[in-house]
Amino acid sequence: MSTETLTKPETDSTESTDDDSPKMFHYVRKNKIAESAVMGTHVVALCGEVFPVTKSPKPGSPVCPKCKKIYEGLRPGADD
Q1: How many CA atoms lie within 13 A of 13 on its CB side?
Q2: What is the pTM of this model?
């Protein structure tokens, strides 16, 4: 009898999950977050992604690299 070791396949972070949790969080206008969470309206992230706000990030949550790059290029105080 012989045995072999199976390696875990690489997974793509864009695959869907059963728990509906976002794969990464996006930067959106601060004044639109509450409205979206309460009313279910869609927001537009800095990267252009459009979605309703359903979750809030916790410290250490993954951030969209496109949003992060754009956000870091904004001038201080330009939060609206």
Answers
A1: 7
A2: 0.62
Cα distance between residue 4 and residue 78, in whole Å: 57
Determine the Cα angle at 46 with ends 54 and 41, to 5°.
Answer: 35
Query: Distance of alpha carbon 6 from its chain centroid, rounded?
Result: 32
**Rounded to whole angstroms, how far apart are CA atoms 7 and 40?**
42
Return the higher-pLDDT residue of 56 and 8: 56
Would you state the structure tokens that stand for residue 7, as one six-digit string? 């390696």
How far is CA 22 from each of CA 12, 31, 60, rounded to the nearest angstrom? 14, 21, 14
Query: Is residue 26 exposed (0-12), middle (13-18) or buried (19+ Cβ within 10 Å)?
Result: buried
